[in-house]
């Protein structure tokens, strides 16, 4: 019985070793390694189990010359994504590497077709943004010696996955605390999707700041969006035309804040005299819109650059000092916040 054999030393098993143990051809093992679909489910499961048992991994390539990094977004098309791209590109350019961009159409898990394409390209590694792999997908890339690092504003990655993130709870706390310190007591939040952890973390920070100041949160002022301008505009219109409107809005993203500013202008409401607005991310546009936006600086470019450097270390088989790095979020006060108008 092969199940009683001790596993070989890490990385010492060969395709032939796996093939003999399972009783299949080396070609079949190669098909499983390469994610090919033309392998029976039962055979694939036996090969996968043997690969895992022997901790099989292809030899990593030591050189990074003429290589490429795969940069994968759950979706892109905004300044937020451009900041990530700029951070990765700066590191890649210094190493004379190419960056291949792809996006998953809003999905948080890539399909097998994406994985097959990556294995076919054999990049130095993969940087994932706001998305992650299944355990089986991670195993497949690990066996191909293709490392993965996640830029994770969700703070949702497994501890075993090298990750760069930021403290979203603290960011929500800082934004709301600033408004409370200015004297606001009716503060609305337009967060992100309810199923996205970074949005929930920012909302938790918002609530904690209220608890600090012993100010109750009006549940009617807690709203969800999609982090894009349209949601900020839609929710902003509802909040600013409703009864007993808020004196301040924490928009949860700079793009949503832009939507709130448009709603305020359309309604003839002055920012910050009539309503204060805080964003999140500190995108370049936040300095140039009118009024200049008070926002939480989430260092997206630095996060992306740090992830790219971690990825290159892994490609060179350098041991990372830590598998999780969280960069600091800081409040940037500009022109869109002020004490509430006294009545």
Structural class: alpha/beta
Cα shape = elongated
Q: What string gives the helices and strands in order?
A: HHHEHEHEHEEHEHEHEHEEHEE
State the helical fraction: 40-55%
Strand content: 15-25%
According to CATH, what is the class of the largest domain? Alpha Beta
Count of domain modules = 3
CATH architecture of the largest domain: 3-Layer(aba) Sandwich
Please sum up the structure shown.
The protein has helices at residues 15-22, 26-33, 41-53, 79-94, 112-121, 135-143, 168-182, 197-212, 229-241, 254-267, 300-315, and strands spanning 68-73, 98-103, 125-129, 148-151, 163-166, 187-191, 222-224, 248-250, 276-281, 294-297, 324-327, 330-332.
Protein model, in words:
The protein is of the alpha/beta class and 343 residues long. The protein folds into three domains: 2-53, lambda repressor-like DNA-binding domains (434 Repressor (Amino-terminal Domain), Orthogonal Bundle); 68-167 and 301-327, Response regulator (Rossmann fold, 3-Layer(aba) Sandwich), CATH 3.40.50; 168-298, Rossmann fold, CATH 3.40.50. The protein contains eleven helices and twelve strands. It has helices at residues 15-22, 26-33, 41-53, 79-94, 112-121, 135-143, 168-182, 197-212, 229-241, 254-267, 300-315, and strands spanning 68-73, 98-103, 125-129, 148-151, 163-166, 187-191, 222-224, 248-250, 276-281, 294-297, 324-327, 330-332. The chain has a six-stranded parallel sheet with strand order 2-1-3-4-5-11. Strands 7-6-8-9-10-12 form a six-stranded mixed sheet, with helices on both faces. Helix 6 (135-143) links the parallel strand 3 and strand 4. Helix 1 (15-22) crosses helix 3 (41-53), helix 4 runs parallel beside helix 11 and helix 7 (168-182) runs parallel beside helix 8 (197-212).
């Amino acid at each position: 019985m092969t199940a009683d054999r001790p596993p070989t030393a890490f990385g010492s098993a060969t395709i032939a070793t796996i093939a003999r143990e399972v009783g299949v051809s080396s070609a079949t093992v190669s098909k499983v390694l390469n994610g090919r679909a033309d392998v029976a489910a039962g055979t694939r499961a036996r090969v996968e189990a043997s690969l895992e048992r022997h901790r099989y991994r292809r030899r990593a390539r030591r050189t990074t010359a003429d290589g490429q990094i795969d940069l994968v977004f759950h979706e892109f098309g905004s300044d937020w994504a451009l900041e990530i791209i700029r951070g990765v590109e700066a590191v890649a350019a210094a190493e004379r590497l190419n960056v291949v961009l792809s996006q998953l159409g809003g999905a948080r898990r890539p399909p097998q077709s994406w994985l097959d394409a990556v294995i076919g390209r054999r990049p130095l590694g993969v940087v994932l943004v706001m998305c992650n792999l299944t355990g089986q997908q991670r195993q497949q890339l690990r066996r191909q010696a293709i490392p993965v690092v996640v830029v994770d504003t969700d703070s949702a990655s497994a501890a075993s996955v090298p990750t760069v993130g930021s403290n979203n709870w603290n960011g929500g706390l800082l934004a709301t605390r600033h408004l409370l310190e200015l004297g606001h007591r009716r503060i609305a939040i337009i967060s992100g999707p309810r199923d996205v952890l970074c949005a929930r973390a920012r909302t938790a920070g918002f609530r904690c700041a209220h608890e600090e100041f012993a100010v109750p949160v009006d549940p009617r002022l807690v709203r969800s969006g999609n982090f894009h301008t349209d949601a900020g505009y839609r929710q902003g219109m509802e909040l600013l035309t409703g009864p007993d409107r808020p004196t301040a809005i924490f928009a949860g993203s700079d793009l949503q804040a832009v939507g709130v500013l448009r709603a305020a202008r359309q309604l003839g409401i002055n920012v910050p005299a009539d309503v204060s607005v805080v964003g999140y991310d500190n995108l370049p546009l936040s300095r140039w819109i009118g009024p200049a936006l008070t926002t939480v600086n989430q260092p997206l470019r630095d996060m992306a650059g740090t992830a790219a450097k971690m990825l290159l270390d892994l490609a060179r088989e350098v041991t990372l000092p830590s598998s999780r790095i969280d960069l600091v979020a800081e409040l940037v006060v500009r022109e869109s916040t002020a004490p509430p108008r006294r009545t």
